[in-house]
Amino acid sequence: MTVYYSLTFMLLAAEMITFCILVAPLPFKVRRKVFRFLSESPIVAKVAYALKISFIFVVILFVDALQRMFRVTAESDLARSGQQGLNDVRTETNLAARKFYSQRNTYLTGFTLFLSLVLTRTFYIILDLIHTQEEYAKLKKESKAGAQNGDATNKEIAELKKKLAAEEAKGRDFETLKKQAAQQAAEFDRLATKYNEATGNVSNKRSD
């Protein structure tokens, strides 16, 4: 295997390891820290930029490997049909090895590109899921705080109703006392009038 295909294989292995880490059942806090680091770290951004450039070369290698695979397959078919060269064991072995290497290189580069797309999509899906979970947790806390505030407001309303009922009871008692005082004052005036009349009558009789 040549150097660039060896590097492509290493890139494929790194993608497989990264994919296993992304889909691993990690706790939410750990997953959030990992994805926040991957999405906000400038070092990771530089590495991602370098990987984008490397994937351009992988695309070129994939196209070249695909062309070689088609060409070697066509040569192998011609050799088997007996239309080109002698059908000896050495030629057939050489064609089989070339066909195997071309197919291997095609699958290697193709799976590398395919897994890169899967990794990118999986990363953003999980990142959106984390943001959604954070928003859900925030809304849940706000709803709990609102419920607590609602309970406190209900308690305050109940206390105000009790105070209002007490004040209304005091008002009713005051009105009752006011009426009783008015009745007593009227009774006192009536009695005082009678007393004055009686006193005046007595003095008039004595003077006669």
SSE order: HHHH
Helix count equals: 4
**How many domains comprise the coordinates?**
1
Query: Cα-atom Rg, whole angstroms?
Result: 49 Å
Average pLDDT works out at: 77
Distance between the termini: 156 Å
SSE blueprint:
Layout: H1 3-22, H2 28-40, H3 42-81, H4 89-207
Describe this structure in words.
The C terminus is likely disordered. Helix 2 crosses helix 4. The termini are far apart. With 208 residues, the chain is mostly helical. The chain has one domain. The protein is built from four helices and no strands.
Question: How would you concisely characterize the structure shown here?
Answer:
May play a role in anterograde transport of membrane proteins from the endoplasmic reticulum to the Golgi. The protein is an all-alpha fold and 208 residues long. 92% of the residues lie in helices and 0% in strands.
Defining key terms:
single chain, 208 residues, mainly alpha, 0% strand, disordered C terminus
